[in-house]
Amino acid sequence: TLNVALNDDKHDLKDYQQVYNDIAQKIREYDEYDEAIGFGPALVRLAWHLSGTFVGPKGCPHFSGGSYGGTIRLPKEAKDPANNALENARWLLDPIKSKYSWISYGDLYTLSGVTAIQELGGPKIKWRPGRKDLGEEYASNSVLPDASRDADYVRGLFVRRMGFTDQETVALIGAHALGSCHIQAPILPGAKESTGPGSGYTGRWTASPNFFTNEFFRLLLEDKWTQKKWSGPVQYQNSDDSLMMLPADLALVEDPAFKKFVQEYAKDQDKYFKDFAAAFQKLLELGIDFKGKREFEFKTLDEQDI
Ligand code: DDH
Q1: CA 185, CA 193: separation in Å to the nearest integer?
Q2: Residues 6 or more apart whose Cβ sits within 8 Å of residue 101
Q3: Relative to the CA of 47, which ligand 1 atom is closest?
Q4: Domains contained in the chain, CATH given
Q5: pLDDT value at position 8?
Q6: What is the pLDDT of residue 47?
Q7: CB 203 within 8 A of CB 244
Q8: Which string of DSSP letters, residue by residue, matches 71-128?
Q9: Which atom of ligand 1 is nearest to the CA of 154?
Q10: In angstroms, what is the span from residue 40 Cα to ligand 1's centroid?
Q11: Of the residues 48, 176, 182, 205, which is catalytic?
């Protein structure tokens, strides 16, 4: 069980906007990273993998995981194979953590996910601070999703274990509009070699992996997905073999209840953005009681003419 007392509000919107801006500048600075996708998608995945360790449900006195303790920085959790390649995202944020030593890892990593979603053209995500760093005894391992599995598994993990609805589950997985799968972790700026293995899957889900869109849903429905012939893990390719899907992605169109939301989001980007924003905030707050705490909403660099 976690100690979920929140840090006092010593910092205001101005302080957190400054951290947001520094993260956003880093995303801009290293736009050539990972075959010109940049660091945005990796930061979204970092926030999700920190938060998605939650074993709930909310209100149950014996829950574990979630973003509160910032535990993905600790060896037990960092070395979970599901977290391969995320050392790169943490590398990007280390100098920001040094500059703003008052911010906890949980707050910094969740804020970086919010920053990336917004800077890549996604919706505004409401965000709340107050997480505190916890030690290795609170770190998780082996609780993040297995990409080779089906709809029942996905529902078991998101709905029964984490307390999301079917609709929120579909909305969250639509984040796969961003980024790509890696056999080897991308090479860091200034480095010669990869930091280590990736997930073992390969390819991008969409043709615009550095823009947050509802493309993932449209492609799921409109392209033709066949099993890729290769020696790697089972994954799917589209008609011209330019894009990919994981088995757990295709589960969203194999299950009728999930598919209903895929169809809705493919048609209606505004609805998708609204639902994603709410579900992503819920993900970042799993297991934490923020009742009555102020929500912050950040301006993008563009909106500040930076
Ligand atoms: Fe994911 N994801 N994800 N994912 N994910 C991968 C990459 C990215 C699964 C598997 C993989 C979510 C849900 C699931 C992002 C966001 C989100 C990769 C490739 C695999 C594998 C990693 C690599 O090789 O570098 C599975 C399985 C699930 C599931 O739900 C069943 C959710 C909910 C999110 C979210 O953000 C809310 C993003 C972004 C990436 C791209 C990362 C990158 O570096 O690029």
Answers
A1: 9
A2: none
A3: 36
A4: 13-300 (1.10.520.10)
A5: 67
A6: 98
A7: yes
A8: GGGSHHHHTSGGGTTHHHHHHHHHHHHHHTTTS-HHHHHHHHHHHHHHHTT-----B-
A9: 31
A10: 13
A11: 205
- pLDDT score for 2: 53
Q: Which two tokens stand for residue 110?
A: 């969740």
Q: What is the pLDDT of residue 247?
A: 98
Give the C-alpha separation, 4 to 56, whole Å: 14
- Please tell me the distance from the alpha carbon of residue 84 to that of residue 212, in angstroms, as a whole number: 23
Beta bridge partners of 194: 187
From 48, 49, 127, 182, the catalytic residue: 49
Kindly list the averaged pLDDT for each block of 10 residues, start to end, along the chain of length 306: 66 96 98 98 98 81 86 97 98 98 97 98 97 94 97 96 97 98 98 97 98 98 98 98 98 98 98 98 95 93 98
Q: How far is the CA of 176 from the centre of ligand 1 (A)?
A: 6
